[in-house]
Amino acid sequence: MKIKLICLAIAAGIGLSTQVHADRLVSELIKPIEPAVVTAPEKVELGKKLWFDPRLSMSGFISCNSCHNLSMGGSDNLPTSIGHNWQEGPINSPTVLNSSLFVAQFWDGRAANLQEQAGGPIANPMEMASSHVLAVDVINSIPQYREEFAKVYGSKEITIGNITDAIAVFEETLVTPNSRFDQWLKGDDDAITQQELAGYETFKSIGCVACHNGPAAGGTSFQRMGVVEPYQTTNPAEGRVAVTGKDADRFSFKVPSLRNVELTYPYFHDGAYWSLEEATDVMARLQLGRELQEQEIDNVVAFLKTLTGDQPTFTMPILPPSTNDTPRPQPFGIK
Ligand code: HEC
Ligand code: HEC
């Protein structure tokens, strides 16, 4: 009889705890990141080569990885990026990690998806400074690339559409599952500390989660920077209004993901703040009208660091060599 009761109690206990855990996945507004499902491994390999290939730039020196360094959280850790001819970029380079989860690409959302986005930097005179025609010519002049494109796309002709498609499919694999926070979401109570949990509670109770939600803890909407108090910056970017033309969208930006945020400093579209403590303080004051205590800030920052997930790992691609027909790189001066 006694044993039966204990068994019942244990069963109820187990039932209760799995219930709590299942509830977290439903009730919490931040959802776990799922590992990438690779359905076209050869396309991913091709996209990875193109991602690392600086020959897509006029100088032959700048690749996607130059400004979205996968050894540094998919960012360049600079306030604004350095482009062709050492040009100072206009805006902070956002991470590419988990970017397949975002509602749109760029701070102002002007590209609908990753493929559309990838065509931008190749031809941007301040970034890779090539052109789509030149990029296709370069890739087309390399027989090993021709073979790979033929195998993956079933056509001898290499197009910019195929180049950007392969890059986008590679980027879709750049997700960061298994963060300690996700382990907690999935039911492991010990995955985060009491302080980190307290930080998450503050993050929710004061309203950060209203904008930073979904699997990427951001990337789901465009929001004004400076809801309660204006943001002071010398950066001329005006945000979403550049796309919609609506005055209400002035100074509205895509809410950045907070995944891996401890790796992607400096913060905000102008890269003006280097520490998460400062960024949290700015957010609390400007977006929510809240003056947080030092302890609360420390707790929130501790929570933010639990959002760092497994970084993408892979073997570095070996790029096929250029041929005598390959247009030569032009490192100095814009032609
Ligand atoms: C010279 C630096 C530089 C290079 C090279 C570069 N990018 Fe970027 N990238 C940026 C900057 C800066 C932004 C933000 C621009 C904006 O929002 O107006 C950006 C934005 C992005 C985004 C959008 C992320 C988001 O959260 O909205 C993706 C994806 C991306 N780049 C992928 C690529 C790919 C693919 C390549 C190579 C074909 C590439 N980038 C080359 C600097 C660079
Ligand atoms: C009203 C929506 C909103 C709220 C509420 C909000 N944020 Fe943000 N958050 C944004 C937007 C928009 C940006 C980008 C602003 C920019 O770069 O100009 C941002 C940027 C950030 C960044 C910098 C990320 C990066 O990569 O540059 C951090 C960190 C951050 N928020 C944390 C928080 C915290 C912590 C809270 C609560 C104290 C919070 N946010 C509340 C909308 C919001």
Descriptive terms for the model:
Cytochrome Bc1 Complex, Chain D, domain 2; 12 helices; mainly alpha; iron; globular; binds heme C; single chain; 335 residues; 39% helix; two-stranded antiparallel ribbon
Molecular structure report:
With 335 residues, this protein is mainly α. The chain has 2 domains: 41-173, Cytochrome Bc1 Complex, Chain D, domain 2 (Orthogonal Bundle), CATH 1.10.760.10; 180-306, Cytochrome c-like domain (Cytochrome Bc1 Complex, Chain D, domain 2, Orthogonal Bundle). Helices cover 39% and strands 3% of the residues. It has 12 helices and 4 strands. The chain has helices at residues 2-27, 41-52, 64-67, 114-123, 132-140, 143-153, 160-171, 180-185, 194-205, 241-244, 276-288, 294-305, and strands at residues 82-83, 87-88, 222-224, 252-254. The strands form 2 sheets. The chain has a two-stranded antiparallel ribbon with strand order 1-2. Strands 3-4 form a two-stranded antiparallel ribbon. The radius of gyration is 23 Å and the shape is globular. The chain starts with a helix and ends in a 30-residue tail after the last helix. One heme C binds at residues 62, 64, 66-68, 81, 83, 89, 91, 93-94, 96, 99, 102, 105-107, 114, 117-118, 121-122, 127-128, 167. This is Cytochrome c peroxidase. Residues 42-150, 194-308 form the Cytochrome c domain.
